[in-house]
Amino acid sequence: MSQILLSQMSLGQKGRILEVAGNGEICHRLLELGLTPGSMVEMVRFAPLGDPIDIKIRGYHLSLRRHEADVVKVES
What we know:
It is a single chain. The protein is an alpha+beta fold. It has a single domain (3-75), classed as Roll (SH3 type barrels), CATH 2.30.30.90. It is built from 2 helices and 6 strands; from the N terminus they run ββαβββαβ. It has a 6-stranded antiparallel sheet. β4 (53-57) and β5 form a beta hairpin. The radius of gyration is 11 Å and the shape is globular. The model has no long low-confidence stretch (mean pLDDT 93).
């Protein structure tokens, strides 16, 4: 198993969230949206220019900006 950032995942790739790094407003918001350590996440699609990205977590789809996904560490 390797550790990557959520923003580095490939289309269709699945992984388990290890950590939401930092302690700023973005990190707090991501935790409230359900991106908590131990949660499974799947990369669903990218927007035509690569931002935002669409992930599936806890049974729902969530769109995130790349800079938001850069603070989430995933084990794939």
